Amino acid sequence: MSAAAATQAMSSMTVAKAPSAGEGEKREGERREGQKREGQKEEARWQPVLGLPCQLVVELPLPSFRVGDFLRLRAGSVIGTGWRLAHDVPLRVNGTLIGWGEFDGSGSRLAVRLTELA
Known about the structure:
With 118 residues, this protein is α+β, with helices and mostly antiparallel strands. Helices cover 35% and strands 24% of the residues. The chain has helices spanning 3-12, 21-46, 67-71; strands at 56-58, 89-93, 96-106, 109-117.
């Protein structure tokens, strides 16, 4: 192939151009906007049930707790759990495990911080 033919062949090829910084930002913005619309659709799907009551239970397992321990309970009793402070406690909504949390203090109140969803 002659040099002129090679040059002509190369000039007729389509060369993929890397997106410029502005194009990349535009695509990222479009992606985020699409995710936002999806989130709004998901939220709208839940709208009819958002006001329904549910029960959130924080479980603190007491594997060695006995009926005798229960009968000795009085106001001010302290129950040893054997549960390590570093272990998260299970969280259930209407009996279904939804995640785990850790106890936290907020002023004079006890709170549970959600650490992981199931």
